[in-house]
TrEMBL record:
Gene3D superfamilies, per the entry: NAD(P)-binding Rossmann-like Domain
InterPro entries: Epimerase_deHydtase, NAD(P)-bd_dom_sf
UniProt record similarity statement: Belongs to the NAD(P)-dependent epimerase/dehydratase family.
Annotated NAD-dependent epimerase/dehydratase domain residues: 8-224
UniProt organism field: Arenicella chitinivorans
Protein name, entry field: Epimerase
Database matches in Pfam families: Epimerase
Pathway membership: Bacterial outer membrane biogenesis; LPS O-antigen biosynthesis
């Protein structure tokens, strides 16, 4: 595979995954163009030497400007589950934004476009482990719009757009803040395992994930395909919290509580808060974290792309904790 310098567009480069991808690409010699909003913290990208194009994924003209002259587009930008956004905003970013990327790739003759989806499109899985062909079962507005964006991109590939789709597992590692709350609670000795922590949880360590993303952008076998990118192992939520506790040298969580009362409380919170545009203190999706299983098969990526995750859960958790401690986050 050629290691010649490429001009590459990364959307979402101020986020965790997009930022890690941009850093890896620049460090190996590629020229990275980053589409960034004016409100974003661009200092890390400036320090790396990325070329910044100011704009938003919802702005078709901005996406066109950023894509001009690039050989590969890595479309990572998305709106995740953040407070206060109406459903229409998820549609603008996670669906219409995908169309803007498709249009720009076609107009500028981009050689390869890679779209980031999510394993969340499978929702609460029935088949364990699930794979790329398993049924879709999105459970919230984020997952529904990510699925719609993925299907839009898949249709474009079917109509000649050279590209690939990847669905990452739960992304973690140095730089991640989404799982910080769980690490903090385990350290403080209070992480109740609602439902007993029997549900399965599948991680994607950031360095392994970015390796897989680059394979989607460069390997000839990736064109026209969808890949699940996750670690080679998965386990129960209880086992994951035990690993975190062991690396933190604290007692592992053992308190098991029934999940049904918590779900009732979450539904009541949402029903009361939504009419007033208030972010509920408790979401049903947070309760589902304790009951929905996530377990996937990455063998397609390993077989077709040579994808080989190197960091197991023990080592990944250890490195993540070290970063949290270095940054006084724990």
């Amino acid at each position: 595979m050629s290691q010649q310098t490429k001009r590459v567009l990364v959307t979402g480069a101020t986020g965790f995954t997009g930022g890690a991808l941009a850093k890896k690409l620049i460090e190996r010699g590629d020229k990275v163009v980053a589409l960034v909003r004016k409100s974003a913290n661009v200092k890390p990208l400036e320090a790396l030497g990325a070329e910044l194009v100011y704009g938003d994924i919802t702005d078709a003209d901005a996406v066109q400007r950023a894509a001009q002259g690039t050989q590969i587009i890595y479309h990572i930008a998305a709106v995740y589950r953040t407070a206060g956004h109406p459903d229409s905003y998820y549609e603008e970013v996670n669906i219409q934004g995908v169309q803007h990327v498709i249009d720009a790739a076609r107009k500028h003759g981009v050689g390869r476009t890679v779209h980031c989806s999510t394993i969340g499109v499978h929702g609460d899985i029935e088949e364990i482990p699930s794979n790329e062909e398993s049924p879709f079962n999105p459970g919230d507005i984020y997952q529904r719009t990510k699925l719609a964006g993925e299907q839009l991109f898949a249709e474009a590939m079917a109509n000649g757009l050279p590209g690939a789709i990847f669905r990452p597992g739960a992304i973690y590692g140095p730089g991640d803040l989404r799982l910080l709350k769980m690490f903090k609670q385990v350290k403080r000795g209070f992480f109740p395992l609602f439902g007993g922590g029997k549900n399965l949880y599948h991680l994607s360590y950031i360095d392994d994930l970015t390796d897989g993303i680059i394979l989607c952008g460069e390997h000839p076998n990736a064109i026209g395909e969808r890949f699940i990118l996750c670690s080679n192992e998965y386990d129960t939520l209880k086992a994951l919290t035990a690993t975190i506790a062991r690396q933190l040298q604290v007692k592992e969580p053992t308190l098991s509580l029934p999940v049904a009362p918590l779900m009732v409380a979450a539904k009541m919170c949402e029903a009361l808060c939504k009419p007033f545009g208030i972010d509920p203190p408790l979401h049903t999706r947070r309760v589902e974290f304790f009951v929905k299983s996530r377990a996937f098969d990455n063998s397609k990526a390993r077989r077709l792309l040579g994808y080989e995750p190197k960091i197991g859960t023990d080592e990944g958790v250890k490195r993540t904790i070290a970063w949290y401690e270095e940054n006084d986050l724990l």
